[in-house]
Amino acid sequence: AIRPERRGESPGSGGVTGSLRGTAAPADADPAPKRRVHGMLKLYYGLNEEGKALGQAESLDPCDINGPHFDPELYLNKLRKECSLGELVDQEACMVKQIRSLDSDMQTLVYENYNKFISATDTIRKMKNDFKKMEDEMDCLSTNMAAITEFSARISGTLQDQHAQITKLSGVHTLLRKLQFLFELPARLNKCLELQAYGQAVSAHRRARCVLQQYSHMPSFRGIQDDCRAIMDQLAQQLRQKFRDGGSSAKDLSECVELLLQLDEPAEELCDKFLSHAQARLEADLQGLEAELSKTDILEFIDRGCNEFVSNLCLVIASYQELFINRLGKLHTFVNSLAARYFSLVERRIQEEKGVGDNSLLVRALDRFHRRLQAVSKLLPGSAVPSQGTEIVVQAARERIRQYLSALQTFYLDSLTDVRQALAAPRLTVGGAADLLSSLSTSILNQIKSVLASVHLFTAKDITFSNKPYFKGEFCSQGVRESLVVSFIKFVCQSSRQFCESAGDRGGSTPPALLLLLSRLCLDYETSTISYILTLTDEQFLVQHHTPVTAVTVLCAEAREAAQKLLNHYVKVQGLIISQMLRKSVETRDWVNTIEPRNVRAVMKRVVEDTTSIDVQVGLLYEEGVRKAHSSDSSKRTFSVYSSSRQQVRYAPSYTPSAPMDTNLLSNIHRLFSERIDIFSPVEFNKVSVLTGIIKISLKTFLECVRLRTFGRYGLQQIQVDCHYLQMYLWRFVSDENLVHFLLDEIVGSSAHRCLDPSPMEQSVIEVICERG
To answer: CB burial class (10 A; 0-12, 13-18, 19+) of residue 559?
Structure first.
């Protein structure tokens, strides 16, 4: 294979081969370096001296073309004897192919290593130049060192005789300087005293104190010692006065104490004075902080407390540890007493944060408060101050959760008030209840999300206390999930059930539409909202259920129970409203002396209108439901006094007032074989079931009122007309039309049973009156 030319080389022998020849050694050169290079190349490519790969067993077969003992003549003779002409031709073609392959591999190897050869040649040439330059520098250095050695020897020879004298004079000079320092010490101390350079004065006196004490028996040194002692007493007096003044900073105070300790003042007395002075300054900081308690926001208050009180406290701790290293018990007592007062102020300020609008300000303030207290733990290991500060942060978070729960409850009650006012509006648009439900549900859900976002600030990664065990575990599960979200869901269910209280309590004045709307809201919570809210909370706060938590199914069951109770109460309230109209219409009429009926009574029209309105109202919030198949003549069913078997027996053509037939017995026998109707049974979550419950209560009330009245001939006929009119419209609202038929049969039958002259109206006349009405 022919590789492309590299670096402008021409193909053929003038390329790579020519370059190699140009760099090759002359023919008469020593062959040893060549052998070494050849050996290194073989070692690089993994070959031995015979050119065979290392680790491969040597072959002694003279016919092995790859072995070191290969004999071409023997190999050729063997091929002639063993192979035919065709095999010889194939063998030749194979060898030619292998030769070409080897040539190609060799050429590829040369091309691939050419750059390495060139680079190695350049490196060797450069190394030769560098070594030549280095040799010149080394020669120059050797010459310089020789000159230096010669000059040093000449100086040593010249000064050899005077070396001892010079050493002696140097010692005398040093001694004179020390004596000069001692004689000038009183003046120097006075100068330092005037300049208030107390540290320099104490340092100079400490340097000379041992010497003066050692030679105090000599009069001259005793005078210097007495002068220095008087000056240092005066300096100590000034330091004590500065210490007592109280206007010094913590740094100046620590310097004073340190100097007094160096002057051998009693350490215990200095310790008490130091703490007393520091306490006065820190109490002043606390008084200033208390004065600003209600004047600034929480962040500014915490910043001031950290920058003044906490910073000064840390300086006192650091200074105390440097000065009184073996008296840490007093320091712990001192720090704990002042920290308790500071924490009291912080707690009072946190309690004033009642607004829940922007939680970030409180969280940032608590973060700075907690962050700055960590410096105390580093300066004073074992102190209870950082843990007490963390507990304050935890209590603030718990209080914040209670405030947010209260805010959610207030928002929910205010939203219900707005819904109540909207329902009481005289012109509520069609679909208004559904729109109100959607608006109420959306606003509550958005408020919950907003509260969760605000509370989530306590667990943000950039907040120092968020890595505490409480905020990783209990805060998320018991705080946010249970105390906030679950408690609010339970509050919604409980407050909704309170609307179902008996009349005279809160539920007595509750609009029925609000009961229906809340019932649908609780049902939506049971089907989807509760699961969504809790899933959102668990994902946002990474809630790990290590502690017992309220299951979703428990909350859903509670919401469904509230929805069922609200819907049952709605049916009861609406049924009682219609029942009240029917009861008054029966009780206020003289059924014995009434005139012949000419039209349907207005109250029956009102009942149908109200039922239709309720049907529309319920249909906006609940699905249709399932009905039994209606008969083709449901709206034309007649209600004569002879329509039932009981009535046919009771009012047969042979009926006479003195007939010896016990009609009460026949009525009771008929009830035994009739299907029992549960008037106040729980309703299902659909429109048909709700309307069925309301109509059952209304007609049952109508029946019971009829049983308490006595009717004349025209009174019975009026009941016939009214019941036929109700049948024309009410059957389409209920799940089973036979229920309406049965109750209306009971009403007409009870009227006939209590009629003094049971003469029914013709069915055709009834239909005319009802169609006209």
So the answer is: buried
